[in-house]
Amino acid sequence: MSQQRNAEDLPLPTTRGSLPIVDSHLYDDLLPPEAAFELTAGLRRHRDPYVGITEDGTPRRGLYRLDGPGTSPRSAVPKATAYLDALAPHRKVVGALPMDAPEWRLWTNAIPTWHPKGLRLDRLAQADRDRALAVVEASLSPAGYAQVRAAMALNANLGELIDDYRDTLTEFAYWFTVFGTPSADSPWGWQLMGHHVDLHCVFVGGQVVLAPVFLGAEPTTGTGRYAGVEAFGDETEVALALRRTLSADREDEFLLGSSLRAEDLPPELAGPWNGRHLAGAGADNLVLPPEGIVAASLPPDQRDGLVELIRVYLDRMPAPQADRTLALVREHFAETRFAWRGGHDDECAFYYRIHSPVLLVEYDNHPGVFLTNPEPARFHVHTIVRAPNGNDYGRDLLAQHYRAHHGG
User: Fold this and answer.
1) What pTM did the predictor assign?
2) Residue ranges per domain, the chain?
3) Element (H, E) at 341
């Protein structure tokens, strides 16, 4: 059975305007202290010395390789150059930042509590906005770009569905920033940041690094004029198919808990903002010991099912880079873990994690934020992809590039 729901099945808000959000700005001083603390994690931590997500606080070296055939799409550079060349000078000053700008790590899946740099798409003329989106499209696979655009459209659908926050829950309330100078030879990249859509794309040494990535939707199926727009079907259904093949007698190896209901969870995993997620905004230096069943210990059909699920996330990148990253993940299958929390029937909410030395994926069903379901439901999805051990934002490959070409 599909995760999708009809509009009449969705819970509608009973109290409108309860969050202090105006024009894509969240006033954290008007929030309860606990909520304010969680929702400002990215802002509070983005200048901390970068380590990366690790198992024990110490990043492993030598996992990522700069050499090999180029996998960057050729059209991304001219698209980015065309976008920047068309901007008015005062816009370019804040829309194009140096490659080492700290704003790489300043992002939130919620609504920003600061005034972001970069250019907000819904403040651009359509031609400039189209050129910005063309950079994103040229950098991703067709499926990856379609999913990003679906998440953006579903953000607008949410605003229409609840008839509130109409200056914030829109299709283009996202900030786009170019870092560095677009070049076939020198590192550069871009960030797209806003509610349920956070992508960091780095081009270095002929490779593409797409991490961190946070994509989500509430709800995952469009209604009204957005009918037919859907997101996260594969992230849900392929995972369920894999879970249903796992043996009950091995549940002690992969099952973290059988329910996502708040009463069944430890308090730190029952909050409405992060839910079960550990690797969201502000978690660049997360220490995460591995949990779950070891991929290499699975029988071939289940191992194939896990690879299929990994491909769902990697296939957001251009095919050559997706293949290259999958090959790297396969090298570490003896250390790759798969963990699950929640049910696996046709209705239950769930969470899962894929944790490799070179890939971290989290999927979570959430309670309502703008809708009123008090417990997690499948029509509210968050996903996160990270490059552990120091390669978020392409940091490991960038360090290799600078040592090789600039002596530092």
Assistant:
1) 0.96
2) 7-406
3) strand 337-342
